[in-house]
Amino acid sequence: MIFCPFLLFLWIIGISPCVLPNHCDVALTKEDVRCNCSSKALTHIPTDCPSNTTDLELSDNNLEIISKKAFTKFTQLRYLFLSNCHVTSIDQSAFDNLTHLKELSLLNNPMKTFVGNIFAPLGKLQVLHISYDLLSKYPGESWSDVLHLTNVFTCSEPSNGLFA
């Protein structure tokens, strides 16, 4: 009962927190549904975050491979953070259905390359963070369908100098 005044306060200001079975924290505001699953030693994308999640924080986990249609249920996602997740591979259709995504962070993952057209479903993507990834090349077809991309953050160039 000690937490009741605090929960009431959060509800009054428009934030409704809860904790999911996989220990992800969910915060609801009038405009956003934020599911924070960072640093939970996850090896796969959680399925119990709400389907109307707008911000999904998965950084500092052990995801390694992002499988096809991994984010299918998250059709309202606008922000996706996959930094420091040991990602080595992202399937061609992993980002299908993420048509509202504005920002994607793949910082500090040991990927060697992107599959061609990997970002094609992300028609509204504006910001991409790929700094400190071990990419040997950045295929030109990866960018061809991302019409609204305004910022690509990278602190290292591809090992062979190819940024198509």
UniProtKB/TrEMBL annotation:
Keyword Lipoprotein set for record:
no
Q: What keywords is this UniProt entry annotated with?
A: Leucine-rich repeat, Repeat, Signal
InterPro entries referenced in this protein's UniProt entry, alphabetically: Leu-rich_rpt, Leu-rich_rpt_typical-subtyp, LRR_dom_sf, SLRP
Keyword hit for Repeat:
yes
Q: Indicate the secretion signal residues.
A: 1-21
Name of the featured protein: Uncharacterized protein
* Organism of origin: Mytilus galloprovincialis
